[in-house]
Amino acid sequence: MKILVVDDEKIKRVTLRDDLRESNYDTIAVDSPLIGLQLLQQEAFDVLVTDLRMPQMHGIDFLKRVKKDHPHITVIVMTAYASVETAVEALRFGAYNYIKKPFSSEELILMLEKLKALRSKSPENTQASSKVDDTNQEPSLYQTLIGKSQQIQEIFNLIPKVASADSNIMIYGEEGTGKSLLGKTIHLKSSRQHQPYVSLNSYGLAADTIELELFGEDSKQGKLHLANNGTFFIANVDSIPLDLQAKFLAVLENRKLTETQDTDAIEMDIRIISTSRDNLKDKTKRGEFLEDLYYQLNVIPLFLPPLRERKVDIPMLINHFLDIYSPHQSIKITPEAVNVLTDYPWSGNISELENIIERLVAVNSGQDITPEDIPIEIKLPTSQKLDTTPSLTSFHEIIKSTERELIAWAMRKTKGNKTQAARLLSMKPSTFRDALAKHINHIEWEE
Question: Which CATH number fits the domain that encloses residue 89?
Fold first, then answer.
């Protein structure tokens, strides 16, 4: 087994190289990803062991490049304890495993021995058996969903089962929780993975537009037809008007689609993955959703929890978005800033978190992200109802709390624009700024 080690830390790099060679591993060690890429072009390696934080090229970028150009190579990433989330992120992009620094050479050798044992069970040679690792052509869960919370891990465990069942699935959850990613992952893990995956978000669309998108017209094929033999993902299915629900139901019950009066009915073999932000069962009781359609779509119900209920995943998501929006800058975030973002309720869920990280990277000057860099509307206290704050015993305390709630609301509503926030509350800009400063100081004192 031939090993390439890439690490800019000289002592660790040389020690690993020597210890691996003593254990009969043909090993070359270099200090730069750029040199590593050159070597990979010149020689065939079985395993790449690489650090994630290096000056010339971020480890995630290096990993992506390696897996693109050399998909059969097995990659093990080394990471400091504080960046385990980034290491887990590396799994999404094709890494085989990760090992936390500081570690002994024996730990890495044990991992390599296990890898060698797994490969030896295959009747094919090393290069060919590595095709098992090349399922990156069929994206894994790590390439779509992120999280280590119990709720997300339960979803991970369910995905292979529901994907193989080939039954219709309904995904419930708030906006921005990752329902579309879950739907795509299920498709990619199913027997239909090489067939079409067609999606439609019906929210906010006019009835005639929904009808055209679903069923087509004249020379334009509808999305149901395009998804035949594959998967049709429809977001916010509860937005479809009742008359179109009936037409949709007929296609599912009859397994036939008639696009125009002049064409023959098309035999349909299609899996439906739907999403809804509301409880469809309640909508059927109110006559807002057809009960028969509900039973057709709700064969396997899944629920994605809001981000505020899986706060343990937030640091991992932060690192994920930092890698996406600062691939060449290696921007880091301080633990204090992570704590601020973790405490925020994220009403927009993962989509809102992604937006904030993108903003922080866009205005960053190459320094670590600190609490001072975080938009002010994120740091303001969240709204509280008076009946849940029994500690407020005096009139002045209640007034002060209410003022803070109003300022926080206005700042979120205007995305931190103080002038617009003052106008929203019918306050003079100078008065608003004085009040804002008073409460910001209080927040800093609490932290």
Answer: 3.40.50.2300
Residue 214 in any domain: the answer is yes
Residue ending a domain, among 276, 303, 330, is: 303
Choosing from 256, 281, 303, the residue where a domain stops is 303
For residue 235, what is the enclosing H or E element?
strand 231-235
d(CA 113, CA 23): 10
Q: Look up residue 45 and give its two tokens.
A: 């390696």
Question: What are the tokens at 102?
Answer: 């500081």
Q: Where are the alpha helices (DSSP H) in 195-290?
A: 207-215, 223-226, 242-254, 280-285
pLDDT bin (cut points 50, 70, 90) of residue 220 is confident
- Shared-domain flag, residues 81 and 166: no
What percent of the chain clears pLDDT 70, i.e. is strictly above it?
82
Residue 42, Cβ density class (10 Å: 0-12 exposed, 13-18 middle, ≥19 buried): exposed
Phi, psi at residue 286, to the nearest 5°?
Answer: -90, 0
Q: How many domains does the chain have?
A: 3
Angle at 441 between CA 440 and CA 447, to 5 degrees: 90
pLDDT digits (tens, 9 = 90+) for 19-56: 999 888 999 999 888 888 888 888 889 999 998 888 77
DSSP state string for 414-432: TTT-HHHHHHHTT--HHHH
Q: DSSP characters for 22-90?
A: HTT-EEEEES-HHHHHHHHHHS--SEEEEES--SSS-HHHHHHHHHHH-TTSEEEEEEEGGGHHHHHHH
Angstrom distance (rounded) from CA 280 to CA 302: 13
Whether 378 maps to a domain, the answer reads yes
Angle separating helix axes 10-22 and 105-120, nearest 10 degrees: 50
Residue 7's domain comprises: 2-137
Any domain includes 344: yes
Residue 196 lies in a domain: yes
Question: Among all chains, which residue has been given the structure tokens 């029994």?
Answer: 390
317 lies in the same domain as 195: no
For residue 343, give the CATH number of its domain.
Answer: 1.10.8.60
Contacts of 399 (CB under 8 A, 6+ apart): none
Residue 144 has pLDDT above 80, yes or no: no
Side-chain-facing half-sphere of 231: CA atoms under 13 Å: 27
